[in-house]
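re: ur question from earlier - yeah i can do the single chain one, its not a big deal. heres the input i used so u can compare w yours
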Amino acid sequence: ELLPDLAVVVAYGKILPLNILNLPKFGCINIHASLLPYYRGAAPINWAIIKGEKVTGVTSMFMDEGMDTGDILLQKKTEITESMDACDLHDTLAELGAQVLLETLDSLKNNMLVRIPQKHESATYAPMMSKELGLIDWNADCRDINNLVRGVTPWPGAYTFYMGNRMKVWGTEICSDEECAFSDRCESLRPGQILDTNRSGITVKCGNGAIKLKAIQMDNC
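and the output i got, formated as tokens:
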């Protein structure tokens, strides 16, 4: 009874064994949320944002025994905007992934698929996320911190500590050079110290530049 024509795999966290890969008549196709060979692995959406990428996309590929190493079939790109967090990008790529899957299946049906071997030497990886990843290092550049917050929202979430208490950070905004220069205190304070508070947010000094906390949440609140 297990004689499928095709298997389609999306966001499955394990590597399929060879006996499963060889079971369908036309093999197994995977829809992966990156432009392979970049960001192979478990969390391509998050790491593309954390690493500051401006463009990502979706790839359909024939699966082999490796981790996201199979031949590429079809790719579509999309922009990562400054306002996107991982949840926003996930939803965008879900829509794009559906288009890629349908076009891939149409091409398979019409015997028009072209298999393109990946350039393995160019591969990068997107390992599994951990809660520890969300801890903000205030010595980092303000853009890197902003990317981290966007990349780990909504899970595992960015956080820091205020007066010994854990504080979740749900939204940030990079301060312009003009905003950083408003106070002579900017040069005298250490990274992680507060520069200013007002209705638009809490401005915190970073290793380079400053960042504005737009949405925060204390533990148990």
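The longest strand covers residues 165-174. not sure if urs matches, ping me
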